[in-house]
């Protein structure tokens, strides 16, 4: 499951990645497309978006990258050491 690759969202690598279902499993994405993401990006996506938002619109890497909050996050995280533990905070709109 976890591999040493580059993150498909932020491009950092080599880094341990996890599989992200672009359409959440609860919305029928179990057999759908996936992306290999670093843990920090994977957590950031789930902190910013609900599963309904991910299934309805943010179901491609390009759409995730185009969201203003993700653009800002990706710009920041690209500068971080791939081995540094990054803490993610839940977005206010999801609290």
Give a quick summary of the entry.
The chain is an alpha+beta fold.
Strand content: 15-25%
Individual helix count: 4
The quaternary structure here is single chain
CATH class: Mainly Alpha
* Gyration radius over CA: 13 Å
Q: Can you tell me the residue ranges where pLDDT is under 50 for at least 5 consecutive residues?
A: none
CATH topology label: DNA Binding (I), subunit A
Compressed to H and E, one letter per element, the order equals EEEHHHH
**Main sheet: strand order:** 1-2-3
User: What integer is the average pLDDT?
Assistant: 90
Keywords:
95 residues; alpha+beta; DNA Binding (I), subunit A; 3-stranded antiparallel sheet; 4 helices; 3 strands; globular
Overview of the structural elements:
The chain is of the alpha+beta class. The protein has one domain: Orthogonal Bundle (DNA Binding (I), subunit A). Helix content is 34%, strand content 16%. The protein contains 4 helices and 3 strands. Strands 1-2-3 form a 3-stranded antiparallel β-sheet. The N and C termini lie far apart (30 Å). This is HNH endonuclease.
Architecture blueprint of SSEs:
Layout: E1 3-5, E2 15-21, E3 34-38, H1 39-48, H2 51-56, H3 61-66, H4 68-77
Antiparallel strand pairs: 1-2, 2-3
Helix pairs in contact: 1-4
């Amino acid at each position: 499951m976890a591999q040493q690759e580059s993150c498909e969202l932020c491009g950092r690598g080599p880094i341990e990645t996890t599989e992200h279902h672009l359409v959440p499993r609860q919305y029928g994405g179990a057999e759908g497309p996936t992306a290999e993401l670093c843990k920090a990006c994977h957590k950031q996506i789930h902190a910013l978006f609900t599963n309904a938002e991910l299934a309805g619109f943010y179901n491609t890497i390009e759409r995730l990258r185009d969201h203003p909050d993700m653009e800002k996050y990706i710009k920041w995280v690209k500068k971080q050491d791939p081995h540094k533990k990054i803490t993610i905070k839940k977005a206010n709109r999801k609290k």
